[in-house]
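Request: Not sure, any thoughts?
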Amino acid sequence: MVETDFANTTHPRQNMDRNRTKLSRFVTSSLQISFSGGTIRTGREILLQAFNWESHKHDWWRNLEKKVPDIAKSGFTCAWLPPASQSLSPEGYLPQDLYSLNSKYGSEGLLIDLLQRLKNHKIRAMADIVINHRVGTTQGHGGMYSRFDGLPLPWDEHAVTSCSGGLKRLSHASLLQGNQSTGDNFSGVPNIDHIQPFVRRDVTEWLTWLHTKVGFKDFRFDFARGYAAKYVKEYIERVEPVFCVGEYWDSCNYENGRLAYNQDSHRQRIIDWIDGTGKLATAFDFTTKGILQEAVKGELWRLRDAQGKPPGVVGMWPSRAVTFLDNHDTGSTQGEFVSYMGGYEFGIRNHTWWLIGPSLKISSWRYQCSSVTNGYAYILTHPGTPTVFYDHFFDWGASIHDQIVKLIDIRKHQDIHSRSLVKILEARPNLYSAIIGENVTMKIGGDSWGPAGREWKLATSGDRYAVWTKGN
């Protein structure tokens, strides 16, 4: 456990109110649930990202509650929900009042109903944790909205970094520029200073509240590049969520405008972040996403690295790799204008919030639509922890939905898990094939291929993919 001086630290401006806003009558003791963590140790998680960028427009908590039986029947173990706290932006990624669960996705009561339904169907809810930045209610030093007057966590400039108007107070009461960020700056909004002990104390209390009182058992750390991984380690150690994943997203390696074959340095940066969390968190495998979405365009040779292994994080540290094809940032409809505050207009570009003009179009990093089933045939048969995107599962028609369910069923019945061994058999422009474990083999690509031996039986197939199994 990381030792800190939380108990003896007070806010430099005022005595913080320790009597936090409590959940209303909707929360009952029946929502509490404990997990042994067995599925984490054995690597048998299957995640559903249960929202997209437009979900806040569609009475989301109520809409999602209706889909819980299908989510459970399909084999998902965890549903990643959008940020649940009140936010300046409707999508939830510009949080203000962390303790308010009334958001554009729905009321606190509807959220609690959804969490209860998920619990009843043995699906853990994953909270989207946005603690790199927070938008204040009042302008502070440098004109930034870095004062949080009137909120349950009434921070001021002492809680934000120097790059966003932060200050720190010395013993003789003079003011200096605040601490520098321990990660990348998220432009345009106040970045939270995790160096400050009172900030870490407050964040820990809020995460504990989400975990033990609200009912979120898993955490997803948004914009994990923005603050040091050691703080994620500290929060995980103190709160003890069941499963954690970080979004450490930076650019892949390119040569002359094309994706480079060698992405070792890219995946190493993700692995370094995981190491920094004390190996307590997993991370989204952006390396595999970047490679796979190019590989399915007739470059399947990309799916074998120079050592003969999968080329993403999943090839180096599969138990910590969370694989996916698209998410709310890459595969959704991130719009032009996002939010107004105090005369400012906020937009998102390259995963960074900016003060912008009247409109801004977003260029996405989208997976090729015609190859989505190929992609799921890959990540659902391979090691790592696979994630299915809401749009693909619920919005792209019954055929794709049912193909994904079949692939999940094969994964479960053949006991493919995050540490399963992979032997790559072919990796050429229009054919990739591999054996996973001992009882599953698969191929994607337009070239004809099948495994040798009569013991292999075709388990499922679709457009340019097939999976075979043997045994029971």
